[in-house]
Amino acid sequence: MAEREQRHVRVAVIGSGFGGLGAAVRLRRQGITDFVVLERADSVGGTWRDNSYPGCACDVPSHLYSFSFAPNPEWPRNFSGQPHIRAYLERVTDTFGLRPHIRFNSEVRSLRWNGDELHWEVETAGGALTADVVVSATGPLSDPKIPDIPGLDEFPGRVFHSSRWDHDYSLRGKRVAVIGTGASAIQIVPAIQPEVDRLTLFQRTPAWVLPRADRKITAAERWLHTAFPATRAARRGLLWGIRELQVSAFTKRPNELGLIEALAKNHMKRAVKDPALRATLTPDYRIGCKRILLSNSYYPALAQPNVDVVAEGLTEVRGNVLVGSDGSEVEADAVVFGTGFHVTDMPIAHRVTGANGTTLAEEWKDGMESLRGASAAGFPNFLTIIGPNTGLGNSSMILMIEAQLNYMADFLRQLDTLGGKIALSARPEAVREWTRKIQKRMERTVWNTGGCDSWYLDANGRNTTVWPGTTSEFKKVTRQVDLAEYEVLRVPGAGARPGAGASAGIPAGTSAGVVA
C-alpha cells in the first residue's frame, strides 16, 4: 500500500522541526516503521524553515545545537546561521530515510480521542487518518504573535512578522519600524540598518545583551573533528558542561548574576557613547529574567545616525504614522514585528479534544501542565515534545528534545509490553504533583524573581515554559515511564493481562520525588 493511502498508523508525529524529525529517527531506530510525520508546509525544518529573516542565526553553539546521534563536523561557524541549520535538518531527513514517512501540506486541523477504539482520529489538510499514538512536536516557536494594534489594518505600507519575512519586498531606502527587542529583533536591526533610509525601533522593554563569541571554524578544526570524532565529542562535552555549571545561578542564586550584568553594561558602553541612549537601553530587571541575548552588532547599529529608539511600545497606527505609548509619532513605509510567538497558548491545543470531550486549550485555561513535560491528564496516548516546563534559559533545547525522545521510546515499549489494544493516560493527581513541585522550585529562580514580564510567564503570571534544573537532571527524570503515574485503558470488554497496569493493582501514586 502506498504511504499516502495509509489510513491507520501506529504513531502520528506532528511537525518536522528538530522535535518531529528526532521522533521519526527514534521510531525507526526502535524498529517502528508504521508512522507518519504530518507537516503543514512543503518542506522540513520547523522554525528554521519559517524564520529566514536577514541575520537569522542560532544563539547556541553549533556543536551543541545538533543531535548527538547525527553530529556534524562541518559546521562553518561557532554560531551557525539559519541556512546551515536548515540544511542540516534536510540532511538528517535524507540520512535516516525519513522522507517516505512525511506527509507535506498536511496541517492538522483536529485531533479527537476515540475512547471506544482507543485511538486518535486525525483530520488534516491532506486527508484523514487514525493513530494509536500521537506525538505533538509543533514546538513553541511555530505560530507568530502580533499584538492587536488599533489602526494597523489601515496601514498603507507592508506589515509582516519576523518569522514570515516578505522576501519580495525590498527595504532599501525605506523607512522601517521594528517592533520588539527580542532575539529576532537584535539580529534583524543590524542586518537591515545599512540599507534602510530610517530605522525606528519600538522598545517596550530593553534586553540584556552580551558579546557573541562567534568566529569561523577553521578548515583544520573541521578536518580534526572528521578524522578524530573524539575531538568533536570533547568540544560538545565542554560546551555542555559549562552551561550545566551556570544553571544554579539562574535557579537558586540569582544575585550571583550581578557580575554578568556588569559585563553586559560594559559591552554596551563600548558601542554606545550617548549617555541618554545608554540609559534607554539599560534594563531595570535582573539579567536572565528574560532570555539573555548575544550580539556584537546590535548596539553599534543602534548608535548609527539613521536609527531612532522609541523607549515605549507601539500603541496606535494612524495611516502611515506609528504612535508610541509616550505620544511620539513616526512615519514608516514598513512595519516588522519581532514580537515572538504563541508559547503559553499554543494554537495546536485548540485542535486537540481528549477523553473528556474538552480541548487541551480548555484544560489548560489556567496554565499549561503535563507530566514530565510530555503527558497531559485526559489525553491518552498523546505525547508532547517540548511541552510545558521543558524550555531552557542558557543551553541547547536539542538536549531536552533527546531526553523527551527517550521518554517517548519507553512509552511505546510499555504499550508493547502490556499488550493488546491499550492506552496510557496520565493520572490527574500525578500531573498535579509534578506541576506542584516544578512550581515550588520555580519560586526562587531568576525567571520568577528577576522583576520582568517575559514570555516565560503565562497570562496568570505562572512560569509554564522553563525547566528549573539542569539538562542532566531532566534526562534522568524522563529516562523511563513510571506506570504508577498512568492509568491503563483497554477496549471495553477486553481482558487485562495479569499484572498489567492499574486494573491489575498498580497503585495510583506518583514518582515525581526526583524533582523535590
The secondary-structure class comes to alpha/beta
Residue windows where pLDDT falls under 50 for at least 5 positions: 496-516
**What's the end-to-end separation, in Å?**
50 Å
State the helical fraction.
25-40%
Number of strands: 20
Number of helices in the DSSP assignment: 14
What features would you highlight for this structure?
FAD-bind_Monooxygenase_sf, five-stranded parallel β-sheet, FAD, FAD/NAD-bd_sf, disordered C terminus, alpha/beta, flavoprotein, 516 residues, eight-stranded mixed β-sheet, NAD(P)/FAD-dependent oxidoreductase, globular
List the helices and strands and how they pair.
Layout (H helix, E strand, L loop, with lengths): L7 E7 L3 H12 L5 E4 L8 H4 L31 H14 L6 E2 L4 E7 L4 E6 L2 E10 L21 E4 L13 E5 L5 H8 L5 E5 L6 E2 L8 H9 L1 H23 L6 H14 L3 H7 L11 E2 L3 H5 L4 E4 L3 E5 L2 E4 L4 E3 L2 E4 L14 E2 L6 H4 L18 E3 L12 H22 L3 E5 L1 H15 L3 H4 L21 H7 L8 E5 L26
Parallel strand pairs: 1-2, 1-6, 2-3, 4-17, 6-18, 7-16, 8-9, 8-16, 9-12, 10-11
Antiparallel strand pairs: 4-5, 5-6, 13-14, 14-15, 19-20
Helix pairs in contact: 1-11, 5-6, 11-14
